[in-house]
Amino acid sequence: MAQAVRRAGVLCAGMDLAVFDTMADGPADAETIAARLDVPVRGARVLLRALAAIDLLKTDGERFWLAPGVDRVLVRSSPGWFGDILRHAVSRYEWDALGRLSDAVRRGGTVLDTNAETPDYPFWADLARTPTPHTPLVADLLADTLEPWAAGRERLDVLDVACGHGLYGYTVARRYPQARVRSVDWPGVLEHSRGHAERLGVLDRVELTPGDMFDVPLGGPYDLSLITNVLHHFSAERAGEMLRRLAEATRPGGRIGIVAVTADGRDPASDPVPHLFAALMLAWTHEGESHALETYRDLLTANGFGEPRLHEVGGVPLRLLLAERL
C-alpha cells in the first residue's frame, strides 16, 4: 500500500509522455522509443522498465511492447480510451489533500486554503469535461426508473443543481422529448456542460445558470430536481438545508433524485469505497463525509419528501435515491 504512489507515478508518466500511443504499432527498443518521444535514452529506459514492472509493458530485455489489453484502454485512439478517467483518479488535487490527511484528522476537516468547496475549483471543470465511466450507467438507470412516472407527462421541468457534466439531466432530456433542463453550476463547469448537452442533442432544451447552488435563485416549480455527487461535500445539517431549498422548488407529486457514494452499514472491509471516500472528504472539505443511506432517508423525510427508493447498478459504487415531493 505504501508503495502505491510509485505505481501511480509510473502510470501517469506513461500517459503524460504518450508512451502507449507511441508503442501501439508494435515492439521497439529503448533507443527507438526515446527518439519517438524526444527524451534522453536513459529516461526512456528507466520508465519502460518500470512500466514493465507493473505489467503494462512486456519485454525480452531489449525490446518492449504493450501488455495484452493495454491497447484498448491506454492508447488514445482506442474507443475504450480510459486515460482521462485515470488522470482524475491520480490527480494532484486528491494527492495534495490526502497528503495532509493527518493534519485534517487533527483539525476535523480540511487544512487546505484551496479545496473542494472553493468557488470555481479547477478539478470540477476537469471532471465535467471527462465524466467517469460510471456516470452514463447511473444516468441511464435514472431515466429507466423514471419511465412509469415521466413517460405520460405533457411537460417535464428538470432542475439539476451542481450539475457538473450535466449528463444526468441531459440523459433524461434525451429520453423524454417533453423535458426541459435547468443546469446550475460554476461558470467554468458550465462550459463543459454545454458541450455535453450539444453532443446529446438537447442543448435547445437546456438553460445554463451560473452560481452557487445554495445562493442562486432556483426558480421553479420543477417536476424533477436532481442533486448528484455533491451532498457528501457537506455536513448532514448543510445537506438538509439544500434539500429544503429543493423541496421549495419542486412541485408536490414531483420527484427528487440523489446520486451519491453511501455507506450501508456493512463492515468497512466488505464495502471499502465509501470509507476511503470519507477520508478524502475529511481531507478535502470542511465538514463533508460519505453519508449513510439512513442519513439520506432521514434528511429527505424531514425536508418535504417521502421515503426514498434505492436503485443500483451492479459493480458501481454510486447509488441512486428517488423520492416523491409530498
TrEMBL record:
N-terminal signal peptide: none
Keywords: Methyltransferase, S-adenosyl-L-methionine, Transferase
Database matches in Pfam families: Dimerisation, Methyltransf_2
Keyword S-adenosyl-L-methionine included in the entry's annotation: yes
InterPro entries assigned to the protein according to its UniProt record, in alphabetical order: COMT-like (IPR016461), COMT_C (IPR001077), COMT_dimerisation (IPR012967), SAM-dependent_MTases_sf (IPR029063), WH-like_DNA-bd_sf (IPR036388), WH_DNA-bd_sf (IPR036390)
O-methyltransferase C-terminal domain mapped to chain residues: 158-305
All copies of domain O-methyltransferase dimerisation, residue ranges: 7-64
Origin: domain of life: Bacteria
Keyword Methyltransferase tagged: yes
GO BP field: methylation
GO MF entries: O-methyltransferase activity; protein dimerization activity
Full protein name: C-methyltransferase
Species per Swiss-Prot/TrEMBL record: Streptomyces argillaceus
Annotated gene: mtmMII
